[in-house]
Please model this.
Amino acid sequence: MNKKILKKIFLGIVYFFAVIGFVLTSGYFAVRFHLTNSAGIIDQQSASFLSESASTSTRPSVDMAWSKGDEWVPLSQAMTKDAGIVEHVSAITGVDGRLITAQLVAEQLRLFTDEREVFKQVFAPLKILGSQSQFSWGIMGIKEDTAIAIENNLKDTSSPYYLGPQYEHLLDFQTNDIQTERFNRIVDEHNHYYDYLYTALYLKEIMTQWKKAGFDISKKPEILSTLYNIGFAHSKPNASPEVGGAPITVNGVVYSFGGLAYNYYYSTVLENVFPPKN
Model:
């Protein structure tokens, strides 16, 4: 093999790794500066969501199109496998297990529709939840900066999100390599405990922030789900919160993240497995 061929092979290898490095670096800064956040929508049904969910006497009417596609059966089966973990997380955090799984439903249906081929080849046949490991992590699509904020809020007694001393050590790390440990426990495909725990604590921290500001949204799954999707930075307590978030198209219907979570929460599907908290 002559020197020219060797040189071409060497340059090809160099360029290959340069491209990989560029992609990974770009991804890192995209996440850091929130460039991966998709444009959200304000749900046009916001007013009806808020008025109907405020009623305690009747169950609100919901759109069920999201449960009629081929995504729902494998998703519901995969969710049922985690019922014990969700119940445990609900018990230690006080957060409604159905509210926790409302975030899961919206996130998984978004993933299943966005990654259609992976859904057909992997998630559907194996009846498993889709776990992410790049810009967002785990089955709940948690971003690294969100996870860090959740952890910090547990310790910061001056934070409007602070829950109290009984919650301070729920996310303590066991090693000095916190970054790696955080990643590994959220993307663990065999045990989703931390996915649900981070989610429950996020929801509880948001509820606490709003309650301290004089607004109780603990009975508004559509608002909590919207805030789960758009992040801490957009959680600004007010008297007229709007339902919205990332647009998700399921079975031909476009939902907002918060709207889709609302429709699941107030439906009867899996109610025997994840009953709403009274």
